[in-house]
Amino acid sequence: MNIKDQIQPKKLPSHVAIIMDGNGRWAKQKGMLRVIGHENGTKSVRDVVEASAEIGIENLTLYAFSTENWKRPKLEVQTLMRLLVKSLKREIKTLRDNNIRLLAIGNLNDLPKKAHQELLEVIEKTKNNTRMTLTLALSYGSREEIVNVVKELTNKVKNNIISVENIDESIINKHLYTQDLPDVDLLIRTSGEQRISNFLLWQIAYAELYFTDILWPDFKKKDLYEALINYQNRERRFGKTSEQLR
Ligand code: IPE
Ligand code: IPE
Ligand code: MG
């Protein structure tokens, strides 16, 4: 049986998040510059976005640039930002043709003006699309996100907009960048690293974690299918016993 046919449509994760890692090592292995790795990484983005929409994943979130990534050499940061603008310009058609809505999470004001504008434009142009929500995490840091929630809620309490007793998980959810998205069901990280690197700490509380040694530029549709099949073979107990689930 074709690997894609092994995926059970009724057991799909509603939210898949991916830490796209390994571009630099991919290039290094080939004796090329790191930026070539990033360029090839954008091809995997397209592959995985298309595959996700085709299969019926409703939410896909991609970690594209972390708050910590600003510490990289200036030239690499510049190239990544340029690639972002280029990809947005190139992929707007793919998003429209496939009825995909784009969102972005992170400290977007930190992005270069051009990248920020391009991003807002594509978000605006795709806002009524309904097949899948693609969220790009850009200048994203989960701790920063949580600190912002604390600040906002503190201000609201101070100004009597909400009371301390009313603060619960759902209010916190509504103040996160991911306010419109469900919890992450499946978190994939490529490149063999087994860490979270400040990504969606609150939202992955009960996510299934999937690590693969494949470097991001080599991660293609088939690899996503494998991750989904692996996910579907797990028992998500959410604290209950196996027997309770049957
Ligand atoms: C992921 O690949 C892309 C970003 C973090 C922007 P890396 O650039 O981290 O690649 P490695 O980890 O150095 O191989
Ligand atoms: C995480 O990858 C960030 C993105 C994939 C955008 P990094 O390569 O920056 O993570 P660390 O530094 O190895 O943890
Ligand atoms: Mg890395």
Give a structural overview.
- The chain is an alpha/beta fold and 246 residues long.
- It has a single domain (12-140, 184-233), classed as Undecaprenyl pyrophosphate synthetase, CATH 3.40.1180.10.
- 43% of the residues lie in helices and 15% in strands.
- It has helices at 23-29, 34-55, 74-97, 113-125, 142-158, 169-175, 221-232, 242-245; strands spanning 15-19, 59-66, 100-105, 132-140, 186-189, 208-211.
- A six-stranded parallel β-sheet has the order 3-4-2-1-5-6, sandwiched between helices.
- It is globular and about 55 Å long.
- The structure holds 3-methylbut-3-enyl trihydrogen diphosphate (2 copies) and magnesium ion (MG).
- The site of one 3-methylbut-3-enyl trihydrogen diphosphate has 11 residues, from strand 2.
Quick recap:
With 246 residues, this protein is of the alpha/beta class. The protein has eight helices and six strands.
